[in-house]
User: Which sequence fits this backbone?
C-alpha cells in the first residue's frame, strides 16, 4: 500500500462544479470564528457503484421526504469542494446492508485513505462470522473511525457476533459513528434500547451518536450523560429539512443540554448525500445562538481532541 502523501502536498485542484460558488460563504463562517477550518466527522466516501445506489435510494423517494442529492458529483470534484470549503479532516463512512460486504468496503476505505491524506481512515462491520477478525485487522491497519448503521443494516447491535467488535473498539479507544436513532425511519433495532444495552456492556466505548440521535434526542442525550465517552454528531440536525421535511425537530426544552454537553457535540453533515447546501448546516448551528466558543468547539476543537488530529 502506498504511503499517504503529506497534507502539504495535497493537490491544489480547485472545484469546477456550480457548487463551488458556495465556497466563500463556508470559508467566511470558520474564518469569522477564528478557526483554522472545519473538521467534519460524518461524511461519506464509498465505491462509486455503492454510492450510486445510495443516491438512487434517496432520489427515488424511497426515503420519507423528497431528497435530491446536492453533491452528486465525481469523487475528485467532491474532494476538491470539501478542501475548498476548508474542511481539514473528514471521515469516509461506508456501511453494509448485508453480510459479506464489510470486509470489501474496508479494503476500499483503506485504499481511499492511503490516497487521500486528509480523509480519516474509516471502517465498518456487520454481525457475521469473522467480524471480530476483520475489525482487528482494520484497527491494526490504522483505521481511526468506524461506522455502524443499525437502520440500513437492520441488525441487532447486541448480536453476540458483535461482542468482540464492540470490545475491541472500546479497548482501542477507536470511535464508532453509530446511526441508532429511528430517523428518518424506524428499524427493528433502532432507538435507545438496543444500543443502550451495548453501552451498558461496554461502558468505555467511544461512540458518536449520529444525527444527535434523532428523533429520540432526549434518550440519547441521557446516554451521553451516563457514559463519558458518548458523543453526538450534528448531522442534519436543525436544518430546515429536518424541521419541516422529516418531522424530527429538536425539542426546545432540550437545547440547554447541548451547551452542557458542548465538549461532546461534533460537526457532522452527511456530505455529499444532503438535499441542501453545505453551508446550511453551519448556519443552522450558528442559529442556535450558543455563541462563538460553542461553535468553535463543535466545528473543530472537539473532533481534533477526540481524533488526536
Ligand atoms: Zn450519514
Assistant:
Amino acid at each position: 500500500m502506498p504511503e499517504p502523501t503529506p497534507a502539504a502536498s495535497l493537490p491544489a485542484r480547485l472545484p469546477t462544479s456550480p457548487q463551488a460558488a458556495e465556497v466563500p460563504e463556508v470559508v467566511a463562517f470558520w474564518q469569522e470564528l477564528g478557526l483554522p477550518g472545519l473538521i467534519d466527522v460524518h461524511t461519506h466516501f464509498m465505491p462509486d457503484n455503492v454510492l450510486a445506489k445510495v443516491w438512487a435510494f434517496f432520489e427515488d423517494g424511497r426515503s420519507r421526504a423528497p431528497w435530491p442529492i446536492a453533491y452528486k458529483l465525481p469523487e475528485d470534484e467532491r474532494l476538491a469542494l470539501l478542501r475548498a470549503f476548508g474542511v481539514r479532516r473528514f471521515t469516509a463512512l461506508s456501511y453494509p446492508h448485508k453480510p459479506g460486504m464489510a470486509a470489501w468496503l474496508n479494503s476500499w476505505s483503506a485504499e481511499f485513505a492511503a490516497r487521500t491524506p486528509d480523509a480519516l481512515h474509516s471502517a465498518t462491520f456487520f454481525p457475521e462470522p469473522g467480524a471480530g477478525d476483520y475489525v482487528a485487522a482494520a484497527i491494526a491497519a490504522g483505521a481511526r473511525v468506524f461506522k455502524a448503521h443499525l437502520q440500513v443494516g437492520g441488525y441487532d447491535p447486541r448480536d453476540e457476533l458483535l461482542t468482540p467488535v464492540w470490545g475491541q473498539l472500546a479497548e482501542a479507544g477507536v470511535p464508532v459513528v453509530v446511526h441508532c436513532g429511528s430517523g428518518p425511519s424506524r428499524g427493528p433495532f433502532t432507538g435507545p434500547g438496543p444500543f443502550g444495552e451495548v453501552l451498558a456492556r461496554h461502558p468505555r466505548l467511544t461512540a458518536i451518536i449520529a444525527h444527535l440521535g434523532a428523533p429520540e434526542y432526549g434518550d440519547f442525550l441521557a446516554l451521553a450523560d451516563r457514559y463519558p465517552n458518548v458523543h453526538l454528531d450534528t448531522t442534519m440536525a436543525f436544518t430546515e429539512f429536518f424541521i419541516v421535511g422529516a418531522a424530527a425537530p429538536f425539542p426546545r426544552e432540550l437545547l440547554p443540554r447541548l451547551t452542557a454537553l458542548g465538549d461532546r457535540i461534533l460537526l457532522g453533515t452527511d456530505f455529499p448525500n444532503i438535499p441542501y447546501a453545505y453551508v446550511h448546516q453551519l448556519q443552522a448551528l450558528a442559529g442556535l445562538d450558543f455563541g462563538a466558543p460553542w461553535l468553535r468547539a463543535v466545528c473543530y476543537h472537539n473532533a481534533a481532541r477526540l481524533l488526536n488530529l
User: Anything to note?
Assistant: Confidence is low (pLDDT under 50) at residues 1-6. The two ends are 22 Å apart (CA to CA).
